[in-house]
User: Fold GTP pyrophosphokinase YjbM from Clostridium homopropionicum DSM 5847.
Amino acid sequence: MAVGEWKKFLIPYEQAVEELKIKFKSIRREYRRKNENSPIEFVTGRVKELSSILEKSNKFNIPLERIEYELEDIAGIRVMCQFVDDIYRVVDLIRNRKDMQIMYEKDYITDVKVSGYRSYHIIVKYPVNMADGVKEILAEFQIRTLAMNFWATVEHSLNYKYKHKIPEEIKEKLKSAADAAFKLDQDMLEIKDEIMDAQKLFEVKSSLVSDITNNIFTLLSLGRTNEADNYRSQLNKVISEGEDIELSKLLEATEKSIGMHK
Ligand code: 0O2
Ligand code: 0O2
Assistant:
């Protein structure tokens, strides 16, 4: 295939990656707006480089005309989660979607790879609406925790450095690092409720502070400079030494002041 033809071949994959990134980032936004804990921490995606497509198809003896059916990760989406159980919530999200069809799933968390690699993979068939009709493509989801992602990124760059021939002693270190990362994930899962409470508290606090700041600006725009300055210094004091309940009281006070002057 000429370079121009490859470019054309890759268009639906580029479209799919953009769409899927938006769709899964939106799910995170939806959870956050509803003030619920999101199983999705962040999402990345990429279209496989042409050189990697050719290298992989060569390695597996895939003829060019079969690439679109047999290379499943030309379009790749990665979903990162805070906790191991979130991975399975994301898997369920994907299983319940009407805009893609699952071809198969690989649970490399239960079936850890020899390298130490852990992630949940789902291969889907995804229809892309092109100018001249619908083109169905295959895409690969990799769902993993932040710790699994850290490990995989490091291991991936070492594989690149050593051209897939990582020395035995480094391989062993990597294997035990992978297990240590998984131990961290399991420990975090045990205190998940505590962590989520802390994150919620932090969110509540930062939204109170932002509401109070907005009110202070409103007072300034109403010409109530002294009151605004007074609230500003109270806010600084409460932030450094106060409790959330005092922030709520301060918010109420600023709302009352605005009400009086509007
Ligand atoms: P790093 O440093 O390599 O981890 P946006 O600003 O949202 O448009 P975004 O989210 O950065 O862009 O995504 P982009 O630039 O399209 O995609 C690149 C990301 O895809 C990189 O993450 C890669 O880690 C990730 N990626 C690389 N290979 C694969 C793969 O085989 N499968 C999947 N699913 N993802 C892959 P970072 O964090 O940008 O950069
Ligand atoms: P890239 O550079 O990420 O695109 P295989 O038969 O094992 O060679 P297969 O059948 O294509 O691979 O599927 P598999 O095993 O599910 O792996 C697909 C992708 O998962 C890989 O894509 C990697 O992104 C990731 N992966 C699998 N095993 C490992 C591992 O041991 N370490 C790391 N860091 N990533 C892994 P590519 O095309 O190999 O690479």
